[in-house]
Write a structure and sequence with these properties.
about 110 residues, 434 Repressor (Amino-terminal Domain), 3-stranded antiparallel β-sheet
């Protein structure tokens, strides 16, 4: 499953130089790439090695598909997939983690 969207929100998917940080955006991009190439779901499935119903399920909920399947679909559609940290979000997330302090036992006992 593509856990990048839930557990690692700093990661973004880039397809043809366009960041795709959410499953909803990936859904639209996958459909647009397929239709721009004039492929049906059945034909794309044949080229990827899965059935039409699996392609429909991936397009409907790409965040629930395996990374491997999404990567294969993008490759078959002529796109490139790269995963990287967002330059804007990464420093803010790191600084918040550094400032968060876990309460010691004596501090918890004061409650």
């Amino acid at each position: 499953m593509l856990t990048c969207f839930q557990s690692l929100p700093v990661l973004v998917f880039s397809i043809m130089q366009a960041p795709v940080p959410t499953p909803a955006q990936l859904q639209a991009v996958l459909r647009a790439m397929r239709t721009a190439r004039g492929l049906s779901q059945a034909e794309l499935g044949r080229r990827v090695g899965v059935g039409q119903r699996r392609i429909a399920a991936i397009e409907a909920a790409p965040g629930r598909a395996s990374f491997d399947q999404v990567a294969r679909i993008i490759a078959v559609l002529g796109g490139q997939l790269s995963v990287g940290a967002s330059a804007v979000d990464a420093p803010a997330r790191v600084s918040r983690r550094k400032t968060a302090k876990k309460a010691s036992r004596s501090e918890r006992a004061d409650w």
